[in-house]
Structure formats: C-alpha cells, structure tokens
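Retry 2 of 3 after timeout on previous attempt. Resubmitting structure tokens to design endpoint.
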C-alpha cells in the first residue's frame, strides 16, 4: 500500500506546489486541473502500479496503521505542550495511526536528523514543525525523492516549497494586532509616549520573525521607541533572565513590555516583581503576551496581563484532514490558517483594524476563561 500510495502522493505534491503561496481553495482548483494535463506521467505510473483497490482508499482501509513521523520543536512552552498533546490524541492507534514522535529539544540539527530517520523508516507521512524557517530545501528534496509527503505545521519553512500543506498561524498578523491594540489602548488611556521592551521568541523561528515585524511596523508608524528587543527563547526562564537585565539597564525608562509568548510573560512578571516594577491594569507598565493559554487568560482576567494575542496550537485535527485528502487522491490547500482571537483585560478597545479588516477585541470575563479549549 505504502509504495503505490506514495507515487500518487508525489503527483499530489507536485499539484500542491503548483498552487504556490497564498493558494486558497479558489486557486487550488485551477492548479489541480492544470496538473492533470501537465503531469500525466506520475498519474499513469500510480495507475499502473495500483490498478486494483488502493489508490482512492484511506491508507488504513486495509487495516494497516498509517505511519506518521512528527519532528516537533521541543517542549519549551505551554503552547508546545498543548500542540504535542493534540497531535498525540489525533494520531493515535485508535484513529488509525502509528505516530513516531520526536521532541527535537530546539536543536535544528537534531530536527534534520529526525526527518532523515523518518525517511529511513519509510514513513507514510512526515510532519515537521520547523524550529527555524530556513535550511530545509535539501531534506525536503530527500523526502520528495522518497515519495513521502510532508505536512508543515505551525512555524513556516521559507526557503522551500517542497511540502504538501502548511497548517498554522499568521504570525505577522499577530504582531500587527498587538501593535494596533496598543495604539488604540494608549489613545484611550491618554498615554502619549511609548517606550517598549520586547522579549522575542527563539531566533530564526518564523513565529519570532512575524511577531517582531508586525509589531515594529506599527511602532514605526506611531513613532514609538523600542528600547531593546532580545531573545527569550520562548521559555519562562528566558523571559525572566531577559527582563532581569532589562530592569537593570532600563530602570524607570520603559512603560510597555511585549512578550512573544505566555511563558516569557510569566518570567518577566517574576523579574518585575523582584525589581519592584508594577505592571498590568493597575501598574506602571503595560504587559502583553502571545499564545493565550488558559493561565495567561486567567492573568488577563486578574488584570495582571493587559492583553494576550492568541495563537491556536490545535492544528493536528486539520493535519489529519489533509492526510485524509491526500489518501483520497485530492489536493489539499497549500496554506491553511488557524482561526485566532485577541483578548484584553479592560473593555475600552472594542475592535481594531488589521490589514483593512475589523477584528474584535474580546473582553475577558469568567465565561470567556471557562470556554477556553487549552
Ligand atoms: O508561540 C511559543 C512556542 O511556534 C507559535 O512556539 C509557536 C511558538 C509559540 O514555543 O509558545
């Protein structure tokens, strides 16, 4: 089953590649139609090799489990834990999968090794959450040569398009939303000067790049000062360490702290507590985070965190759908975006406009908190 299916999937990957970046469903249809005339050879090969029963069936239809290798970033944050748990639940034996899960511990070389091991093991599918956004073309070419479809999840790969689909979030939009909210909030509060400190996520991660760029775009437009922007590695310890040094270097000079994930915000709060800096709704410093895990939303409800910009970690069910589409010989969309929300402590900014689109700011109440899925 594996080999015949793989041949078909190479054809599907070719089709998906034709769709290119920004390919939505409207784009996907003509691309698939185009490929029917453009790539008859692959399709014919699949037909010759799989004449009988397998090609349009789900891979598990004959009782075999679908073998999936998942090269996960690591275990640096609550977001990551939620994403891993979701993948382990979705890709379970109960659901027809055999999952090989590798925690790459934020080590890019280890992640490339993990993917190459998956090729050696002749996996049916490979899922990659890329630690960094570049350096991927060679290994993705190897996956393609081996006929193993790759689905990219969460962070993006920016120097190769040799994968079937990417499922994740628009990190630049998250950064823009954070900036737009801060601009509207400062205006509503009569704060005329912004002196911001940024605690970035891991260097080279597309989540870091997008959030940094998006926020900076608004900061430049508004004439804010970004006093410093350093790598907190998406961890609580990293956030604390960076904030400890900021509290020394910029004592009394900052009124905003942007943490690129929740865990960094927890660390930054510990550091500010120790330095006697007050933050949140009743404090001197506005502090925000990205991710919006439940403990962070609780802090927003408590007024300790002014706002949090959601990044949804539950992409695995969508990856499952992508795999099912591939198994049925369909062409999944090249880019699939997760829905997200922006949450704030005070009810003074009802909405913001991001990329020309009005988006609500959710005022966090007990009900909002109770309904959070992760
Ligand atoms: O924000 C952070 C995690 O890639 C979007 O990685 C993800 C980020 C997330 O460690 O908490």
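Retry 2 succeeded. Sequence:
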């Amino acid at each position: 089953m594996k080999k015949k299916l793989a041949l078909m999937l190479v054809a599907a990957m070719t089709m998906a590649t034709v769709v290119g970046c920004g390919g939505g469903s409207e784009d996907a249809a003509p691309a698939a139609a185009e490929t029917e005339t453009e790539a008859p050879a692959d399709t014919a090969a699949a037909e010759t090799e799989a004449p009988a029963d397998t090609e349009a069936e789900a891979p598990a239809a004959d009782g075999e489990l679908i073998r999936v290798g998942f090269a996960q970033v690591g275990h640096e944050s609550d977001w990551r834990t939620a994403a891993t748990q979701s993948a382990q639940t979705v890709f379970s034996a109960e659901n027809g999968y055999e999952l090989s899960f590798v925690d790459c511990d934020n080590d890019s070389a280890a992640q490339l090794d993990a993917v190459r091991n998956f090729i050696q093991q002749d996996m049916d599918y490979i899922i990659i959450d890329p630690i960094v956004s570049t350096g991927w073309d060679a290994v993705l070419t190897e996956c393609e040569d081996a006929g193993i479809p790759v689905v990219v999840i969460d962070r993006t790969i920016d120097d190769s398009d040799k994968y079937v689909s990417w499922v994740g979030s628009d990190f630049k939009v998250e950064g823009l939303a954070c900036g737009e909210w801060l601009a509207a909030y400062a205006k509503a509060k009569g704060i005329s000067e912004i002196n911001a400190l940024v605690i970035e996520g891991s260097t080279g991660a597309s989540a870091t790049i997008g959030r940094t760029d998006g926020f900076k775009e608004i900061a430049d437009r508004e004439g804010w000062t970004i006093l410093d922007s350093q790598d907190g590695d998406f961890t609580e310890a990293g956030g604390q360490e960076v904030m400890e040094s900021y509290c020394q270097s910029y004592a009394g000079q900052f009124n905003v702290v942007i943490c690129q994930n929740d865990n960094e915000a927890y660390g930054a709060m510990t550091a500010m507590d120790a330095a006697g800096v007050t933050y949140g709704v009743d404090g001197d410093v506005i502090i925000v985070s990205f991710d919006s895990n439940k403990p962070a939303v609780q802090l927003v409800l408590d007024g300790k965190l002014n706002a949090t910009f959601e990044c949804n970690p539950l992409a695995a069910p969508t990856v499952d759908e992508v795999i099912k589409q591939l198994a049925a010989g369909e062409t999944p969309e090249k880019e699939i975006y997760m829905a997200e929300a922006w949450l704030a402590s005070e009810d003074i900014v009802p909405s913001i406009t991001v990329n020309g689109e009005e988006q609500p700011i959710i005022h966090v109440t007990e009900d909002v908190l109770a309904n959070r899925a992760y």
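Attempt log closed. The chain has 13 helices and 14 strands.
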